[in-house]
Amino acid sequence: xxxxxxxxxxxxxxxxxxxxxxxxxxxxxxxxxxxxxxxxxxxxxxxxxxxxxxxxxxxxxxxxxxxxxxxxxxxxxxxxxxxxxxxxxxxxxxxxxxxxxxxxxxxxxxxxxxxxxxxxxxxxxxxxxxxxxxxxxxxxxxxxxxxxxxxxxxxxxxxxxxxxxxxxxxxxxxxxxxxxxxxxxxxxxxxxxxxxxxxxxxxxxxxxxxxxxxxxxxxxxxxxxxxxxxxxxxxxxxxxxxxxxxxxxxxxxxxxxxxxxxxxxxxxxxxxxxxxxxxxxxxxxxxxxxxxxxxxxxxxxxxxxxxx
Length: 308
What we know:
Blueprint: E1 16-17, E2 21-24, H1 28-38, E3 43-50, H2 77-84, E4 90-95, E5 108-111, H3 116-123, E6 129-136, E7 139-144, H4 166-175, H5 177-188, H6 192-201, H7 206-219, H8 229-248, E8 261-265, E9 275-277, H9 293-306
Parallel strand pairs: 1-3, 2-3, 2-5, 3-4, 5-6
Antiparallel strand pairs: 6-7, 7-8, 8-9
Helix pairs in contact: 1-8, 4-7, 5-7
């Protein structure tokens, strides 16, 4: 470990403005990100928090989410994190909803979601700057997305999980009879008459969206995965550090891509994967393919942001 500071490293972060930053996912990694920024003096601005977990904070979250305790069980993750970090210099705007439902495109989108389908939805916002962090077993990974068309995007190497079709979900419920209709109505908070009408017609709208979300949670429950608190803490802390660095740095030039990915796994501390590297775009990724019209729009947004 060097005793000499990195040349040019800041001595303080006084009035570093995070306005225009949004976090998607306030679970293990995301809540650590909030906690790390709360504990960092000198930060200001307004930050959006979004998490749609219908169960809120559960007992299984407590070993991996530093801010949450037993008294918070059942609470919205975004609102609870915002409340606990309310005395920071930052102003938090929590939403108990999926980020893409908010209809906003922040200048910096921070992804702490835990499914590939959610990452693909976030990539579809094509925010000027994006960061991501995730965990797998004993490995923590953080990615500075892009530059557009050069570095990996949120969809790269992350094929979305298989999705059960809407028609099939409705057919399964109809086959379940009165009991299935009643259970769906109770879970989604929709009158049974409206459930039956939607099952027959499949109409779009707010009711249809709520019913489909309930059916998908039933049909595609989140699979239990091995996870430990210190791995999530590593990922969330790295993500917070990269957030601060991104807001401090000069514009990232597309012609000069730097190492945009850092991986650390705890099983063998000397493993060669414990390093920074350049993670180039996935040649098979449709979201940042050269022919995709959104790629040019993403480039323009990134360039316009860097000129500010």
